[in-house]
Design a protein that fits this description.
By secondary structure, this protein is α/β, with parallel strands linked by helices. 41% of the residues lie in helices and 12% in strands. It has 9 helices and 6 strands. A 6-stranded mixed β-sheet has the order 3-2-4-1-5-6. The protein starts with a strand and ends in a 6-residue tail after the last helix.
């Protein structure tokens, strides 16, 4: 049996402020640091020994991974980073308050921008200072691959090549693999693994800092999936994620 753990980064500063983050490279909040450490402790208590980890290019995911591995005393394992595990690009919404945006455009529209399968937010302009082309960490990437906005479908389409080329081989080589990434990029992985419909993925909310475990056959078929959290805590955290796009 294989075990794949998906870990959404701990609360970021913009999560705390209820702002659309996307590819904006913001740090963890104090709460997020604690969440990452607690995630590492939970994984240690459950006996995980990872052979490899995958992480996005964004510091909130990278720091979460470091803190979790430190708690596990497994900072020596190989780590592969990729822009393909970045959060969904929120285009021109990046930096805007979610509740204020919901008050302006309506909660249903914001829900579609946040959770819809094939609905992308308004794109960035080419000369917008938030454009990834101005960030040196993306200078080696083909400019035609760099998004100005993304739907969840777009996000999944950029993740799948990495899944096939890197994550599957790491699962074939190691019994336990950790992916530390973001709410929407991990939703894409879950949709792919569980073969969820477009309607089902709309209602999936992944909380920050709670390890999400998939037990897999050697052929990488899902046996079962569960969070390392009690049900009451999990439901509370999922409801908080869902409510972020509501007008106050």
């Amino acid at each position: 049996m294989k075990r794949l753990v998906l870990l959404r980064h701990g609360q970021s500063q913009w999560n705390k402020e209820n702002r659309f983050t996307g590819w904006a490279d913001v740090p963890l909040s104090e709460v997020g640091i604690e969440e990452a450490q607690k995630a590492g402790k939970a994984l240690k208590e459950n006996g995980f020994r990872f052979g490899m980890a995958h992480v996005s290019y964004l510091k909130r995911a990278i720091k979460t991974l470091w803190l979790a591995l430190e708690e596990l005393d497994q900072m020596y394992i190989p780590i592969q980073s990729t822009w393909r595990l970045n959060e969904k690009h929120y285009g021109a919404l990046q930096g805007l308050n979610k509740s204020e945006t919901a008050a302006k455009y309506g909660e249903e529209q914001v829900k579609l921008w946040r959770r819809g399968f094939n609905v992308a937010p308004p794109p960035l302009e080419e000369n917008d200072e938030r454009h990834p082309r101005f960030d040196p960490k993306y200078h080696h990437i083909d400019k035609h691959l760099i998004p100005l906005t993304e739907s969840l479908e777009d996000t999944i389409n950029r993740i799948i090549p990495y899944w096939n080329d890197s994550i599957i081989p790491s699962l074939q080589q190691h019994n336990e693999v950790l992916i530390t990434a973001h709410g929407n990029s991990l939703r894409g992985v879950v949709m792919y693994l569980k073969n969820l419909s477009k309607e089902e993925i709309l209602e999936l909310n992944i909380p920050t800092g709670i390890p999400y475990v998939f037990e897999l056959t050697d052929n990488l078929q899902v046996i079962r999936d569960y969070y390392l959290a009690d049900e009451a805590t999990l439901q509370k955290l999922m409801a908080e994620v869902a409510s972020q796009g509501k007008a106050k």
